[in-house]
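Section 5.1 Outputs to date
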Amino acid sequence: MTDKEYIIKCEERYEKELDEIADKLYVDKAVKLVLIAGPSCAGKTTTTNKLKKKLSRYNATTYMLSLDDFYKSPEFAPLDEDGKPDLESVQSLDINYLHECLHDISIGKSAYIPTFDFNLRGRTDNYYKIKLEEDDICIIEGLHALNSEIYRSYVDENAMYKIFLDPQPYEDFPFTPSGARQLRRLVRDYYHRSAKAEKTFSMWPSVRNGEKKYIYPYSDCANEKINTFFEYELSVLKDEAIKILSEIKRDSEYYDKASVIIEKLLRYRAIDPSNIPEGSLMNEFVKKQ
């Protein structure tokens, strides 16, 4: 079996689950909003795009909405226990306007969706319209998509289908589930967000704290839970992760942590990321070819 064939085989379960969900949504005409949530680096963006593509075979128009576009400017975000903006809190979103938009979308009225510019750290003047016709669906993705505070009393429960994504490695995997996601984030943020490993390490405790408070408590209300871990992922992350972690100096507080991760990665055979097929979830987390 070639590396490319191995990767495709590893992804079969995930693809099958999305196919089955698309079939369910086609049958259940009451569903208007598909809510996709999960912790950091669970693959929300790719899963949303894939599900949209799979639904297109039924000739219905599928819209996508990211909760990130409803962020308030940081100066209006709630503060955490240290007095810093708590960007992990659901209250960092413009909840009132979000309620209005989700209600209008669910009953077939026009909703005007904002766009948030993370470079400018604020909302732009550009809005786009979503108006669902009879067979249309809107997929909503974001950390807080399953938090009942964003839809309670505003959207009919029967109009929603909730999906929770969570990468859960196999038993003898050398990292915890959060450690596996942190490794994804180390490589992704280095190449796609200009963030070195030390920054990712420094932010991770806050990310994990936010997940425990605001994300995982709502996982049990999901109609479907999808494991977005792939058996091959350490192999495609290995070389770049070791390179990134090796940049950490001996005097860094994260040097020992980086050394432990490198030691674990060295046990794995490297696979060239170019073997990852177009459209794979793991393309979110590898160096651009």
